[in-house]
Amino acid sequence: MAINLTPVDRAKYAAARRAVDLVEDGMKLGLGTGSTAAWMVRALAQKVRDEGLRLTCVPTSARTADLARELGLRVVPFEDAGWLDMTIDGTDEFDGNLALIKGGGGAHLMEKIVATASDRMVVITDASKEVKALGAFPLPVEVVPFGWQASRMLIEELLAAMDVMGTQASLRMNGSRPYITDEGNHILDLSLGRIGNPRQLSLALNQVPGVVENGLFIDICDAVVIGFPDGMVELR
Ligand code: 5RP
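Predict the joint structure of the above. Result:
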């Protein structure tokens, strides 16, 4: 691997390498999205070349699918794979209960579907993503484009009624246009500061008309691999 990596990338790569050690021949794998997940896809492709493994891979975004195919991994449509053995993905935040905020890369809808259709979700990260309470990272909420302004108002009312700190929901932009997810939706990023009850908030957000899925992953992640710039890892 290139030696000119930043300390953060060395940490992400260390976590990715360790998670790839868990992969066995014949497995059906969910591939996450983001820079940490991209390190995992590279490490996985190397392992497949070195050990001649036969794997079936289901990516969680078009970006990951492109990278996986480019590196020679066998990518299949989700519907052809059925239940998966393991999903390996990055995160934006994780807490002591292994609850997550994901979706900084805009892929949390597909990531959540794939992770929950897997026996095991393993998260790979550098140490900076660990938090005492979720919420410093803006919480992504995917909404259908039709009436997204109404969904935003309802979300802001909901947050105020739940007494959640901060009620601002910003439409994610891509330059001068709204960001469009792989599923054709928009994203509202909620600046909350601190989420007291992530499970309650996740359930309530998904009741709002127009909301497709929020970025809280509760009771989905089974293990976190934290990488460090010196190549060491810690498992949680
Ligand atoms: C994408 C995600 C990513 O896993 C998350 O944003 C972390 O990204 P990175 O590994 O680049 O820090 O949830 O939707």
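Residues 32-37, 89-92, 102-108, 111 surround ribulose-5-phosphate (CB under 6 Å).
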